[in-house]
Write the C-alpha cells for this entry.
Amino acid sequence: MTDTLMVLLGSFLLLMLLGLPVAWSLLTSMLAWVAYGGQWRFLPIAAERIWQGMDVFVLMAIPLFILAGELVNAGKITDRLIHFANVLFGWMRGGLAQVNIGASILFSGITGVALGDIAALGRVFIPAMVKQGYSPAYAAAVTASSSIIGPMVPPSLVAVIYGSMTGLSIGALMAATLIPGLLIGLVQMLLVAVQARRHNFPQVEMDRSPAVAVRATGQALVPLMIPVIILAGLMGGLMTPTEAGAVAAGYALVVATLVYRSLRLGTLGEVFQRSALFSGQLLIIVGCGAAFSWVMGMENVPRMVAGWIGGWEMGYLGTLLVFNAILLVLGMFIDPTTVIILFGPILSAAAVHAGIDPLHFGVIAILNLNIGLLTPPLGVCLFAAERIAGCGLGTLIKANTPFLLVNLAGLGLIAAVPGFSLWLPAALGF
C-alpha cells in the first residue's frame, strides 16, 4: 500500500470517526490525497468526476421514488395500509408486533427506504405497542428490525444505486431482492410468534368480519398499486427505472389529492422541499463517492483487491463467507450507499471471478449492508427507533439481539440457496 493511498483512506476514516458528514469526508480526503501527493492537476478532473457521478440518467429515479414516498406519508395513505395489516396479521398472538412487521412489508413496497419506514410507522406502532403492554425497547426493536425489509422489497433505492454502480439491470436486481425481502419478513414473524407464546403477548381486538376485510382490502389496493406499477413497468420492459419513478410519483399525487383528498395543494411545497433535500443529500454522496472511487482507481486499488482475492484461492463458498464478513463489518461502520459506491464494483467483479452470480451477490450485499443498520456503532435504524421510544440504547440493543440473529440466519439461508434470489429474475426473462 502506497503512502498516498494510506493518506486517502486514513483521512477518510478519521473524518468519519470525528462525525463529519459522509460526502464531506470523501471530498476532504480526496483533497488531502491531492495535497500530499502534489497532484494539483487532478483538482479540475475531481470536480468533473463528482458531476459525472451524479449525471447518470438512471439516478433520476431516486428523487422520484423519494417523492412518491413523501406523497404517501403526507397523504396519510399509511393509515389504510396499517388497517389492512391489522386485518391480515392482527389475529395472531403478539398481533400488534406482527402487524408492525406486516405493515413494514407493505409500506416498503412504496418507499424502499429503511429510515422512511421508521419515520412513518415508528411513530404509530411504538406508542401503540407500549400502550398494549409491550416494553418500549421491544417495540423499538420490532420497528427497527422490520425497517430493513424496506430496501429489499421493490422499489429499492439501494438497488438503484447498486445497479448503477455495477452495471446490473435494475429491473433484474429488484426482481432478485423481492423473495429474499419477503423471506426476511417471514423469519422475523416466526421469531415474534415464538416470543408471543413465551411471553403471552396479546392479540389485536378488532372486527374481522368478511365485510370489514373486503373494505380494508379495497382501501389498501389503491396505494398498493404503486409497487405493482413499478414492478410491472420495470420487469415487463415497459419503463426505465426513472420513468417508473415518475409514474409512481404521479399516481401517488393523484391518489392523495383527488382520490382520498387527504393532501391539500397548499402543502405540496413542503413535500417537494423534503424530497429535494433528501435527494440532494443522497446524490451528493453518490457524486463524491464516484470521485473517490476514481481516485482509488488511480491508486490501483481494484487490481490490488483482485490480486489479494485471487491469491487466497478460497473457491466459491470461501469467497462467499469472506465477502459476507467483509460486508457485515463495513455495514457496521459506513452507511450502505457509501459502501456500495466505494466497494460495490470491486467486490462484485471479484465475486463474479469466483463464480458467484452477480445478481445473487447483489442481493447478499444489499441485505448485509441493511443488517449493518441494526448494529452499533453506526446502527442508524437503532438510533432512529430509540429516539421515538426513549428506552435507552443499551436496552434496545439487548431487545434487538434476537432479531439481529434471525436476520443473520435469513442472510445465511439466502446466501446458501441462490434460487431465492435467481428464480424470479429467470422466470421474468432477465
Observations:
- The longest helix spans residues 268-298.
- The mean pLDDT is 81.
- The chain has one domain: 58-427.
